[in-house]
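**Protein of interest**
===
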Amino acid sequence: MPKWDFQAESQLYLAFEFQNNQYTYRAMPFGTKHSSIYFATAMEPIMQQIRMKLDIRIINYVDGILFIHQNKEYLKNMTLKNCQTELNQTVIFLGCEWNLSNATVETKSKKQLLLIYDLFNMRRWINTGTEIIVKQAAKLIAQQNYLRLQFQEASLFLNTMDHQKAQSARLRGWNTMMIMNKTAIPNLNWWIARLRASIPAQLIQIPPQMTMTTDAAPSGWGLNIRERIGNNTNCSWNLE
């Protein structure tokens, strides 16, 4: 197994006391299995402070950190020396394509094709009643759940599969076999259609040009229209 030693100057901060003796970790105490969790936990308060004090948007996943700002020079001055300033308006990050000019995110085509292939296989196995490993179903659900940034309704179309997977894992274990119920097929069809359409998701909510609200009244219906520029137009009509 590889040896993951801490730097000597960092070992001081990893010291602890037990039965009047002082010890310090020289390497990761539990190996690399939980290192990503520890790193993300340690980085979260730092990210919060940066978001609060600097006008910089941060998107991070474990040790991958993306800083976004409209002014390239400002971003270069405010970030660390060993960070790289991305000059392009299109950034590949976490398997997705981030278009910074129009604030959209889209899953890379290769990743889409691989997931569509897995979804087709799952649909075929469900139709034929083929047994699959519980871990295999969990892996597919994790891949779909990973795309919630682009497909905001994703969690709604994972409930059926996730419930069956969780029930099988609880009753028989993760390494056992299961047969997915056909009630999951509509959800799989939704995912396949969405991935084929590949519509980029907006990272910034676009305000509506106009909103309309209606309400019942003793003499008919009332209507209120509010334009984006702030002008109000009120009108009403009768059902007669």
